[in-house]
Specification:
Length: 218
């Protein structure tokens, strides 16, 4: 009989339980998803020629203009014979055309036998960063556990995804080409010792020239 009387009381306590114990920050991850899209574009050269024809130049410019290649894209130039003089001149002509259109600041070279004899294939790799689903108000409003809001981290993740010039940097960083410390320090020391070209000859505070300069400036 007593158990039956206590049953509504326990049900009431269950109804007042802290729902946030069922939610954790792991339920609302703020990870940025980076997808890598790959595409290719074939450039055609006349037999034995290292110059891009007017029609091919226009076609390439239109491809870049419509977003086929963007400045932050990573590109590779594929040729059947990447070692010959003609192949090298064709790469130079193609890179010049790409840079004229504002892309192709850096490109790698690959030898791919299946590429046509008078063709250069541009392999394009583009990273696309997708921010997490935000805003996120999935956490129950009643909170006695002092956990962070489910929306915590949304602004940081969304802004980082939007501002990354090359989203693939979020997957793997660029190589760190560190400067040689001794060379940098030597340049500064040479400047202080007035050995560097154009370094100003500052008067010593202990010379009469110093005080003459101070008097003149006043």
């Amino acid at each position: 009989m007593r158990a039956k009387l206590l049953l509504p009381f326990f049900a009431l306590l269950a109804g007042c339980a802290d729902f946030t114990t069922q939610w954790t920050p792991d339920d609302s991850p703020k990870a940025i998803r980076v997808d890598v899209a790959r595409s290719s574009y074939e450039v055609r050269f006349a037999a034995g020629s290292a110059s891009l024809g007017p029609a091919e130049t226009t076609r390439l410019a239109r491809f870049v203009e419509t977003g086929g290649i963007r400045p932050q894209d990573r590109i590779a130039l594929e040729q059947a014979d990447a070692l010959g003089k003609l192949a090298e001149r064709r790469r130079d002509a193609l890179l010049k055309a790409l840079r004229t259109n504002g892309v192709g600041a850096a490109a790698s070279v690959a030898m791919v036998p299946k590429v046509g004899r008078d063709r250069v294939v541009i392999e394009i790799e583009r990273g696309v960063a997708a921010s997490p689903p935000c805003p996120d108000w999935s956490k129950p409003p009643i909170d006695y556990s002092a956990q962070v809001s489910s929306n915590f981290g949304c602004a940081t993740a969304s802004n980082l995804a939007a501002m990354a010039a090359d989203p693939t940097d979020l997957l793997h960083a660029q190589p760190n080409a560190r400067a040689e410390g001794s060379v940098a320090a030597g340049a500064v020391q040479g400047y202080h010792d007035h050995q560097a070209y154009g370094a100003p000859q500052a008067p010593s505070p202990y010379s009469t020239d110093f005080y003459a300069t101070e008097t003149t400036s006043q």
